[in-house]
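Usage example:
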Amino acid sequence: MPSLPGRRTVAKYLVGGAALTVFAACTAPAKPMPSKTGGPVPGSSPGPAAGGEMPTAAGPPADGAPLAAATDGGAVAGPAAPAPPASQAEPWAPPASGPVPSRGSPVHALKTKYSLSDPNSPWVVVNKHLPLNPLSYEPPDLVRPALPPGSGGEAALLRAEVAAAASRMFVAAAAAGAPMTLLSSYRSYDMQAALYGGYAAQTGGADADTKSARAGYSEHQTGLALDIGDANGLCNLNPCFATAPAAAWAGANCHLFGFTVRYQLGHDGVTGFYAEPWHLRYLGVEMAADIVAKGFGSLEEFLGIEPAAAYL
Ligand SMILES: [Zn+2]
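Running the assembly step on the lines above writes:
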């Protein structure tokens, strides 16, 4: 096994009778993230073992101030949004006629309050078809979230509004008996490039694409995404994390704090990544709650933009 630090095997699938090992899109960086506000946060602390029912959050927090207003003229004229799919498992399908919608032309939700392409927008869409523009984007307001006791992790930076929302979420999760740890958050272009380059040098670009996002294509570069862990850490960044208390609580409640579970089971053909119940993406309460209310399993499906299973 290559010795690149941070590499985590997250799933082994049987494809056509052959075992396929899949790695996380959220592969943790090799070293603690550089911080503009301080040094690394101490490692995770002990916590309860996995299992048990997850109580719900005490109540939704106040939504934070918007990060950026829409600037790309993505408004779409037309009728109200169509009915949501019957379930999260329903496959995405393009419109019966007309062009496949692209970024800036959401058809399901007609969400145009904020830009879908401005990297400063809380609604920016980043996937294998939609890199950040510019590729080397750096968030303007990274801060280290003030996490409650027992919810530590590596040095972590998030955009200010996201850090505040994450702090509230971590407090609520801990109070509900599902304390979280913060495994990874902001990742710079250079960090992502080094991570991806390490994989590519070992096994080639095609294989690297199954393990790590290319630089400029990672939500972690936006400062809007974070990977959570469970307090006991046994399943962190592995498929069994889906059964951990922190994952169960986040899946049921993270939208109340403005987050969505970005890569959900069965939606890899749309998002480009296998299920990652630890990867939370901040969108703000309005959109995050709407996604849940309408039963969508991915941001792409909710916005009605084209699937991005692979790089173009
Ligand atoms: Zn991630």
